[in-house]
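User: We ran a pulldown and think these components assemble together. Before we commit to crystallization trials, I'd like a predicted model of the whole complex to look at. Sequences follow.
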Amino acid sequence: EIVLTQSPATLSLSPGETATLSCRASQSVTNYLAWYQQKPGQAPRLLIYDASNRATGISARFSGSGSGTDFTLTISNLEPEDFAVYYCQQRRNWPLTFGGGTKVEFK
Amino acid sequence: QVHLVESGGGVVQPGKSLRLSCAASGFTFRNYAMHWVRQAPGKGLEWVAYIWHDGSNKDYTDSVKGRFAISRDNSNNMVYLEMSSLTAEDTALYYCARGIRLYGDTLNHFDHWGQGTRLTVSS
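Assistant: Here's a predicted model for the assembly, 230 residues in total across the polymer chains.
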């Protein structure tokens, strides 16, 4: 099973700042990595698929990069609605796995 | 627009069985792989099961293999999760999610999710 480790667990930032979230895989997932946003009481929402492709309707403030084992989600110019939990997920191998999440909170 | 609505959750005793359902609308259901993903209270996301667009291929996370069975009815745009021998560790919010379909290929990332149905296993 591929283990995804997200860091940091919590990121304390202010609106307007840039968030940099990391996801590290225990073995290569090539570029088969997605990012999701989840707000309290809501279902997750797909942001990025295959490492760097924005999903339909996702703001250009969200960008993904990386390949192999190291991936980054960057959220530029944080807006109030961006404060949420973010998960990465790999589709390279079965079982599909998620990272433990990074919470982006108000500083 | 794409709509996924889960149902069937509830409170069940350990060792019992339950079937979850997911009603899909707003897209050509028979063309898409479907998944179940769960989230235990206060915890992260865990992929549970998957079924190919025509039902010909399925897979499960190890902890539910032999206990859970995923199925679909493409005539009625439904996907199901039959769960048996339930334990407290199965307590979670269960989401139905659609796999991405891009240029005819299936990508096992999830582009649409339902709001979930809650399962509590407790005596």
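The first strand of chain A starts at residue 4 and ends at 7. That may be worth checking against your pulldown data before setting up trials.

User: Thanks, that helps.
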